[in-house]
Structure formats: C-alpha cells, structure tokens
Write a structure and sequence with these properties.
Elements (H helix, E strand, L loop, with lengths): L2 H15 L4 H17 L7 H11 L5 H24 L4 H15 L7 H5 L18 H18 L4 H27 L7 H7 L2 H12 L10 H30 L12 H24 L5 H22 L13
Helix pairs in contact: 1-13, 2-3, 2-4, 3-4, 4-7, 4-8, 5-7, 5-8, 8-10, 10-11, 11-12, 11-13
Length: about 325
C-alpha cells in the first residue's frame, strides 16, 4: 500500500486527536482496568480500549458514551480470548445461551437458580486457564452492558432490540470461527469463503457500536448502511490479519494470509489491495450519506474505526503516531 494511502488516513487520525482531553482519556483507561482484569486480559487492553472508545465516539457524546463503549470493547476482547483458546465448543454455545437470555431478561440476575433453568452444557462458573475468566463472568458483563444501555436510552427500544440482535450475531460469527479452528476446517477454503465470514463478527460489532448512539431512527436507513459497515469490518479484519499472521499460523487459526494462496508474499499483496479497495468504497459510501446530524455521527464512528484499525496495524512504520500505550 502506498505511503499516500496511509498519509491520508493518518491525517484524519491526527484530526481526531485535535482538542482531545488526553487526561480524560487516560482516566477512562483507569476506569476500564477493572473490566480488563475481570475478563482475564491482565490489564493490557484497558488503555487501548479507552483510546479506541474515546476517539470513535462523537465529541458531543464522549463523556456519557465512551465508558460504555470502552466496556463493550473489553467485553468483546474477553469473548475473543475465550473463543480463541477453548478446545471444545460447549463453552461457546453456553455463552450464546446466556447472552440470549440476558438480552431478553436484562433485569434478571444470573443466580444459581436462574442458571439451573437454562440448557447449559458446562459449569459456566469454571475459570478457563488460557482465557483467564469464566463464561459466567462474560455473561454478567453482557448483562451489565445491556442494563447500562437500557438506563442510558430508556425509550430507545428499537435501537435496543437491534443492539441485542447484533450481540447474538457477533457471538454466532465468533463461534463459527472457533469451530473452524477446533476442527481445522478452514484448510482448503477460498479467500471468498473466508471473506464471507471473516468480517462478519466485526460488522456486528460496528453495528452494535452504532446502536449505542441515540440516533433518530428515521434519519438513518439501516439496511442501506450495511454495505458501508461491511467495508469498515473488512478493513478491521484484514489489518488485524496482517498484524497477527505469525501467531495465528502457530495457533492454527484462519487468516486471510493463510487461505488460498501459494505463498505469503502474494497473500500480503492481495490483502493490502483488498484493504485499499475497501477504503475507497468506504469513502465513496460515506459521501453519499445524508446531511442529517445522525448521519454525521454515523460517518464519524465508521471513519474513525477504519482509521484506528489502520493506525494500530501500521504503528511500526516511520510515521509520527502517538503510541497507544503512552496516552
């Protein structure tokens, strides 16, 4: 990818930093630390999560929304670690069962009596050593997020319903990726098959993040927005694949650079070209959004998420980017 391509994105990234209260962003990182540790992340993700949550949230809503978005991001990291390390699928299916129950019953605590009534396959209170947390911890995290969303937007019922649906879709996609890893069934698949699944979980995350905005429902055409969301998800997935290919090769996980290519160099060139194509499409589609305030918020979230993904991947190059861990 050309330096001009990255320069344009980094200029936008730097524009996000203009006027940002770095101390407030650092305080958010400190607040998120308790969730980071609860999800077995060993305190390594709180600061990046705060950075991501603060910058992708429209400035008008940062004080209210950024803590919720940051918690949501850390919860997703926790799920990712569990699904990346489980050697059987039962914990993943139990997590889906808990999240379905929670989104339908946000005010019901996950007590032993409640758990006994659910069709669970494992002891959900068991700590998985490689993940560092239990399915129940992640379930309670989902319950807190859903309750916080309901408290923040008590009349935003349509948005809440969509948010709950996207949580389930994200876990479904993550389960499919975990199944590919456990069964090693991704071998022999084409890049098109991989790309039909790879960005899916991220697309649900992006959509769920948009649902956290108190948008006017008639101001955004959600179905027309899905292709735009998919471009952001593609950028996030492929930049992550480039950054993690060596680790995922060892772990036996599917990765765009390991699927359907004779060698890694050709795969890298192909992946970089796909990132540029998704970027071009994203910018064109963002220009077509209406001039409403809600559309402006949507555009901010989508473009910010793409920029942050590119920055995190490309931070090793000789470009002046504020380090994620030195806020």
């Amino acid at each position: 990818m050309s330096d001009q391509f990255y320069t344009e994105w980094f200029e936008f990234y730097h524009s996000l930093l203009q006027g940002v209260d770095m101390q407030a962003m650092s305080r958010l990182g400190e607040e998120l630390m308790k969730f980071d540790l609860a999800y077995g992340l060993e305190g390594k993700r709180a600061v990046p999560a705060a950075h991501y949550a603060w910058l992708m949230t429209p400035p008008d809503y940062r004080e209210i929304m950024a803590p919720l978005v940051g918690h949501f991001i850390l919860w997703l990291f926790g799920i990712d670690v569990l699904l990346d390390t489980c050697d059987q699928m039962e914990p993943a299916y139990d997590l889906l069962t808990l999240c379905k129950f929670i989104t339908d019953n946000p005010d019901v605590a996950l007590s032993p009596q409640t758990l006994a009534q659910l069709p669970l396959n494992t002891n959900v209170d068991e700590i998985y050593p490689l993940a560092g947390c239990s399915v129940l911890t992640l379930g309670n995290g989902a319950r807190q997020i859903v309750r916080d969303v309901c408290a923040l937007y008590p009349t935003h019922l349509i948005g809440m319903a969509r948010f709950a649906r996207e949580l389930e879709l994200e876990i479904h996609a993550g389960i499919t990726e975990a199944l590919w890893r456990v069964e090693q069934s991704w071998h022999g698949r084409t890049i098109d098959e991989y790309m039909a699944l790879g960005p899916a979980s991220i697309a649900s995350i992006v959509t769920a993040a948009l649902e956290l905005l108190p948008l006017q429902d008639d101001a955004v055409d959600w179905e027309e927005l899905r292709p735009t969301v998919w471009q952001v998800a593609t950028i996030c997935r492929l930049t992550n694949d480039i950054a993690t290919v060596e680790r995922e090769k060892i772990e036996g996980r599917a990765n765009a650079l390991l699927v359907d290519s004779p060698n890694e160099f050709d795969a890298l060139v192909r992946t970089q070209a796909m990132i540029e194509q998704a970027s071009d499409r994203l910018l064109i589609e963002l220009e077509s959004l209406s001039d409403s305030t809600s559309s402006a918020y949507v555009a901010h979230v989508l473009k910010s998420m793409a920029a942050l993904a590119l920055v995190m991947y490309y931070a090793g190059r000789d470009l002046e980017i504020p380090p994620m861990n030195n806020l």
